Amino acid sequence: MLILLIPLIIMTLRLIFKPTVLNLLISFIFLGFLGCEPSSNTQKVSDSGRQWLAGDHHIHSRYSVGWERDSTPPAPIIGGDAIYPIPMNALMAKRYGLSWMVSTDHGGPNHSKVNLEMAYPELLSSRKAVPEVIQFYGMEFDTPGADHSSLIIPHTHDESEHLHDIESQFNKREPFPSDSTWDTEPRMLEALDYMKTLETKPVVIANHPSRSATGFREYGLYDPAEFRNWNDKAPEIAVGMAGAPGHQAATISADSSFRERPRGGYGRFPTMGGFDQMTAKLGGFWDSMLGEGRRWWITANSDSHVHWKEGGSDFWPGEYSKTYVYAEKSHEDILDGIRSGRVFVTLGDLISELYLTAEGGHHSADIGGSMHVERGDDIEITIRFKDPDSTNTWGDNPEVSRVDLIMGEIYGPVTDRDSDTNPTTEVIERFTEADWEVDGDFRVIRYTLAELNTSNYIRIRGTNSEELEPEEDPAGEDPWAELWFYSNPVFIEVDQ
C-alpha cells in the first residue's frame, strides 16, 4: 500500500507550500498507514448490508481556485481559496470516521475546465489511494438566482462529462465576461430540467440556506418559494438543504482560544445551536415543507477550505459534523439513502447511531419512510440511539441529556408559496435519562400515539444542553459546548 502511495506523497509535497500543512499530511500518512489505531469515533463497517455510514457532502480542495484577474480570461490560481489536495481531504475524512465524501469545488470563469482537466483526475487518484472512503464527484454549484448548492453526481463511467455539461451550461459564474442572465431563478429551473434528462440523476442540496438572511425570517439569496419551485420541478434531484452549515470553527483561533466571530459565517442572523434558522426553528420553514408532505431532507457538512489550525474557519471532514446515511457501503446505495432521506445529522459526535420507528396497523416505517394506517389506530414509536462512551476530537465525551419527539400535521400544499411556518408542529414529549432504557450500548425510548386521526410526520432531535429550544449562537461561542442531533422525518398517513 505504501508503495502505491509514493507518487501521491511526492505530488503532494511538490504542490503544497505551507510547512504546517506538509507536516499534517506527512504525520497523517505515517500514523494512518504505518499501524496507528484509528480515532475512537471511526466507524467500522462491512462491505454489505445497510448500516449508518457517516459522511460529508461539502468539501473543497485546491481546485476551489483563486483568479488572476489581470489576464483575459482570468487564469485560475490553484489553492487560491481552498488549499488541500483531494487525497488529503480523503485521508482526513478516513481519520475522522467518515465512510463517504463528496468533493465539491466551486466555480468561476471557465471553471468547468478546471474541474474536468485537474480536479477529476486527482479524484480518480484519490479513490485508489483511499479506497476505504467512498468518494463522489461533484461541485459546489454557483446556483442561478441563489447561493451555493452541493451537486452530487452519480458514480458512472461518464460522471466527469455530466458535471462538465451542467457546470459549463448553468453555473452562474462560468461565463466570461460575466453574464447576469445566468443568475436568475428561472435559469435554475432550466438546470433542473436538464438534470432530469440524465439517465442517472444527480442530487442537489442547498448549502448554508440562511447565511445571507438579514434577520429572523428575513431571507436573502434563498427563500421558501424558491425551494418549493425546485422541489416541484425535480423532487428526486432537489431533495433538501444543509440543516447545519460548515465553517463552524470560525470562532476558534489557531492557538485554540476563541475569537469574536459568528459560527458558520452567519454574520447577520446567527445559527441556532449550530443549525440554520430554516431548520432549527420549531414550526418554522422546514416544518412548513414537511407539513405539505414534501420529502425535504436536512444534512450537515464541513464546508472545509482551510483548517482552523492554519488560521481558517473550518474543521476537517468528519471532525465536527457528520451526516449519517443508512445504506450499504456503495456509491449507489449511499446516494439512494440521501435521496430517500435515510439520514440523521449530529454535531461533535454526540451520537453515532439513531433509529426512529413507527408501527401501527400491521405497518411500520423508519427515518425517511412513510406508512399508511387506519383512522383511530394507535402508533407505537421506538427511538434507539447510541451515545458513544468515547471522546470526540476536542477531547470531550458529551452525553445526551434530552431527546425531543416532535410532531406536525400533514395538511397538503400551501396557497402561500412563501409560507415558512407550520403552527401544528410541537414537541409532544421531552425525554431525559429517567425515561429511557439501557440496552447494551443503546438507549431506548418507547411512546404511544393513541388513536391517531390525522396524517402527521414525526421527527426527533436531541442535545447535551439544557436549552428547551435552540437559541441564537453568540459570536465567539465554543462550538463544542452545545451540541444537537436531528433526525429526518417519518410520515404517518391516515387513510380517510
From TrEMBL:
<protein>
    <recommendedName>
        <fullName>Phosphoesterase</fullName>
    </recommendedName>
</protein>
<dbReference type="InterPro" id="IPR016195">
    <property type="entry name" value="Pol/histidinol_Pase-like"/>
</dbReference>
